[in-house]
Amino acid sequence: MLTLSNLHVSYDGSRILRDVSLEVPPGKVVCLMGRNGVGKTTTLKAITGLVRLDSGSIHLDGHPLESLRPDARARLGLGYVPQGRDIFPNLTVMENLRIGAIAQSRKLNGELDRVFQLFPVLREMTQRKGGVLSGGQQQQLAIGRALLTNPKVLLLDEPTEGIQPNIIDQIGETIKTLRDEGLGRSTPHDDPAREVADAIRAIRAEGRIGILLVEQYLDFCIDVGDRFYAMDRGAVVAQGPIRELTDEIVKKHLTV
Ligand SMILES: Nc1ncnc2c1ncn2[C@@H]1O[C@H](COP(=O)(O)OP(=O)(O)O)[C@@H](O)[C@H]1O
Ligand SMILES: [Mg+2]
To answer: At the N or C end, where does the chain have fewer CB atoms within 10 A?
Structure first.
């Protein structure tokens, strides 16, 4: 269980996080939601140790983390997939996976099997360059690499960013479908975020790892989340089981 208690964080003297408290139990997907600039990424950086706390405490399975360096926190069981898919486009899928373990000078042994079981598509692509994978597959690769450090809690920062369906892509798809299949026929759109949702569900089904999912894509959170925290201007303004995420909360704090 990851527990944040009353975190306060500032950049250059201006307060960014105000009294943030939240919990991530094992086997649960906890969504941290909010508009751009409210402090979601800063919360993850506070957990990993990339930004310093003014005050507050962070515990992982009872161990206090706040005085530890980022590498020590990672070894205690924090896996972090930062915003933007930071895979190496010119390395193969297998090389991308191994990099995570090399960084910690650990052998992979059975752990690669677990990743391939969770994300079967990666097994088929071990020798492909990371850069040729779809956005969703790249995200699976980034998550798979984080899993190889054997985390207790996984921190995911906007894993659907840049792979959500947008109008331009959909028009492109429609034109392609018409061209490939003849006028008048169309196929349902594949949800490009499906691979990311599948990855999160697979990890959740193991029941071992808690996931703190920073996400602005509302339907995605409702789809994969167990609980939510809504942030506004650096503070948690609402929380609860995902089914209690009301239209009122969405309108007031989450929509642009
Ligand atoms: N390194 C930094 N130095 C100063 N201000 C920052 C820095 N990083 C983020 N901020 C500011 O902190 C606020 C929260 O940012 P961030 O946590 O990235 O928001 P979110 O992830 O919710 O979009 C924003 O106002 C942002 O401009
Ligand atoms: Mg962010």
So the answer is: C
2-254 in CATH: which number? 3.40.50.300
Ligand nearest to the backbone CA of 15: 1
Q: With contact defined as beta carbons under 8 Å apart, do 163 and 192 qualify?
A: yes
What token pair was written down for 106?
């650990």
Give the integer Cα–Cα distance in Å for 165 and 143.
Answer: 21
**169 near 192, Cβ under 8 Å?**
yes
Q: Which ligand is nearest to the CA of 156?
A: 2
3-state secondary structure of 109: coil
**Average pLDDT value for residue range 105-126:** 85
Could you give the 3-state DSSP secondary structure of residue 178?
Answer: helix
Residues with CB under 5 A from ligand 2 (ion): 40-41
Establish whether residue 84 lines the binding site of ligand 1, counting it when its CB lies within 6 angstroms of any ligand atom: no
Q: Residue 167 has what pLDDT?
A: 45
Structure token pair of residue 195: 């691979």
Radius of gyration for the alpha carbons in the chain, expressed in angstroms and rounded: 19
**What is the reported pLDDT for 180?**
54
In this structure, of 82-86, 120-124, 186-190, 233-237, the range with the lowest mean pLDDT score is 186-190
The pTM for the full model equals 0.89
Domain boundaries, the chain: 2-254
Non-local CB neighbours of 2 within 8 Å, separated by 6+ positions: 23, 24, 47, 58, 59, 60, 78, 152, 153, 210, 212
A 10 A CB-CB count for 102 gives 10
Cβ–Cβ < 8 Å for 96, 130: yes
Stated as kind and residue range, the H or E segment containing 213 is strand 210-214
Q: Does residue 40's CB lie within 6 angstroms of at least one atom of ligand 1?
A: yes
Measuring CA to CA, which residue among 216, 214, 221 is closest to residue 197?
A: 221
